[in-house]
Design brief:
The chain is an alpha+beta fold and about 90 residues long. It has one domain. The chain has a four-stranded antiparallel beta sheet with strand order 1-2-3-4, with helices on one face. Strand 2 and strand 3 form a beta hairpin. It is elongated.
Length: about 90
Amino acid sequence: MNKQHEYNGYTFNIKVELNYRVERSIDGKREHLITLNDMGATNYYQTHYAETHNLSEIIELMIDEAEKWVDKQMNGDKSEEVILLESLGFK
C-alpha cells in the first residue's frame, strides 16, 4: 500500500508491505516493512519494521523524522531562537 505525504514543497512516498516477515508458528509474530522516501532529487530514504499493534505509531514517527529533516534542509543549522527571531523580522 502507498501514500504520499507533502511537507514544505517536499513529497514523500510511504510504502507499507504487510506481513513482510511472518514467524511460522501458532500466533507467530507478523512484521510489516515501512519504507519512506523523498520523491524529489534528494536521497532521503528510511525503512522500519513494525508489528500490527504499533504500525501507526511507527509511521507517525517516520513522518515526524522526515519533516524534521526537511526543516533542517531549509533552515540549516540555525537554532530555534534564530529561526523565531527571523520569522519576526529580525536580521
